[in-house]
Amino acid sequence: MPAYARPTRVDEALKVLAQGGYTVLAGGTDHYPARVGRTPQEDILDLTAIRELRGIAERRDHWRIGATTTWTGLIEAKLPPLFDCLRLAAREIGGLQIQNAGTVAGNLCNASPAADGVPSLLALDASLELASVQGRRTLPLAEFILGPRKTALRPGELLSAVLIPKPKHEARSHFLKLGARKYLVISIAMAAAVIEREGGIVRAARIAVGACSPVARRLPALEAALTGKRLRGELVRPEHLAALAPIDDVRGSAGYRSEAALVLVRRLLEELA
Ligand SMILES: Cc1cc2nc3c(=O)[nH]c(=O)nc-3n(C[C@H](O)[C@H](O)[C@H](O)COP(=O)(O)OP(=O)(O)OC[C@H]3O[C@@H](n4cnc5c(N)ncnc54)[C@H](O)[C@@H]3O)c2cc1C
After folding, report:
1. 110 in ligand 1 pocket by Cβ < 6 Å?
2. What is the average pLDDT across 51-63?
3. Whose C-alpha lies nearest to ligand 1, atom 33?
4. What is the C-alpha to C-alpha distance for residues 159 and 259, in angstroms, rounded to an integer?
5. Best of 110, 121, 130, 175 for a ligand 1 pocket test (most atoms within 8 Å of beta carbon)
6. Could you tell me the distance, in angstroms and rounded to a whole number, from the CA of residue 109 to the centre of ligand 1?
7. Nearest Cα to 157, choosing from 174, 144, 140?
8. 108 C-alpha vs ligand 1 centroid, how far in Å?
9. Whole-angstrom distance between the N-terminal and C-terminal Cα of the chain?
10. What would the pLDDT profile of 170-211 be if each residue is shown by its tens digit?
11. Which of 3, 41, 103, 226 is the one with CA 20 to 30 A from 171?
12. What value does the mean pLDDT of the chain take?
């Protein structure tokens, strides 16, 4: 019989994980659909009873989003406009039942190229706190997802929190998703932007596109081109998206994805302008 552990404290969870062989379970909304028709054989470490992993706390220079904070928890939290991109993404993740159970950390650890939370968290410059019995380390999100279904999590490690630094200037953000229909759909392309401004001038821009490369990516050339200027959608040029490498699949061709990403990024900036 597979083992099932549901500890109430992080240190207990880490001891279970350190034994090896356990699969972490949060909302289960990626875990279970990947196992339809198969008898469960894995030893499970269920995180949902650990209160200290849930919820959002504001600290002096950052916000801390606990690993098992659900998409609904994020939508309902009192957060500044900086977080609009992540809340908009949260509202488009599955339906209400999925948003009630699915977690931010689960979306990251599942490492799907179409994970809707990733572009917003890249634009928010998120870092991840990873915990094990050896201690805790922090890794930028951009170094965490290594490829489709591949992360930098080491054996015995949990993603314990997502950390969002406070911006230096007044910051606004936005998110747009393109799917074959409006809701309950896997993204063909999605994009998120955080713009920090002072006196109408862009002081920092962070823009990321998902589902158009094996891992969602920031667009450093575009970010540099916007800095020091007044924001306008026309500033986006096709070469600013050269870092992307879209593929053909059942949801869209590479050419369509490239065009869609360009339009999404322009619309994001027009909205924020
Ligand atoms: C009907 C349906 C619609 C969906 N729609 C969307 C959508 O529109 N957009 C989208 O992006 N996703 C969508 N999803 C996927 C899923 O809901 C999200 O990715 C969700 O955020 C996953 O979170 P979870 O807590 O359910 O993860 P789980 O299924 O519990 O876990 C996912 C993976 O992460 C690991 N894991 C989870 N938490 C941790 C942790 N703290 N530390 C280490 N490893 C961990 C697990 O071991 C597992 O490998 C959908 C799923 C369904 C079933």
Report:
1. yes
2. 97
3. 110
4. 35
5. 110
6. 8
7. 144
8. 8
9. 58
10. 999 999 999 988 888 898 999 999 999 999 999 999 999 999
11. 103
12. 96
Supply 69's token pair: 């904070």
Percent of the chain at pLDDT exceeding 90: 92
pLDDT (0 to 100) of residue 249: 87
Q: Which amino acid appears at position 227 of this protein?
A: T
Nearest residue to 98 via CA among 218, 184, 162: 184
Burial class (CB in 10 A: 0-12, 13-18, 19+), 250: exposed
* Sequence-ordered list of residues with C-beta below 8 angstroms from that of 71, at least 6 positions apart, any chain: 90, 91, 93, 98, 99, 100, 102, 103, 104
Beta carbon of 158 within 6 Å of any ligand 1 atom:
yes
For residue 59, the CA-to-ligand 1 centroid distance in Å is 26
C-alpha distance from residue 3 to each of 13, 16, 26 (Å): 13, 11, 16
Q: Which residue has the tokens 């931010």?
A: 104
Per-residue model confidence as pLDDT tens digits over 201-255: 999 999 999 999 999 999 999 999 999 999 999 999 999 999 999 988 888 899 9
Radius of gyration of the chain (CA): 19
Answer whether residue 122 shows pLDDT above 90. yes
User: The tokens of 266 are what?
Assistant: 């322009």
> 80-121, pLDDT tens digit by residue?
999 999 999 999 999 999 999 999 999 999 999 999 999 999
Model confidence, pTM: 0.97
Both tokens assigned to 175:
């998110």
Please tell me the distance from the alpha carbon of residue 153 to that of residue 134, in angstroms, as a whole number.
Answer: 14
116 CA: nearest ligand 1 atom: 11
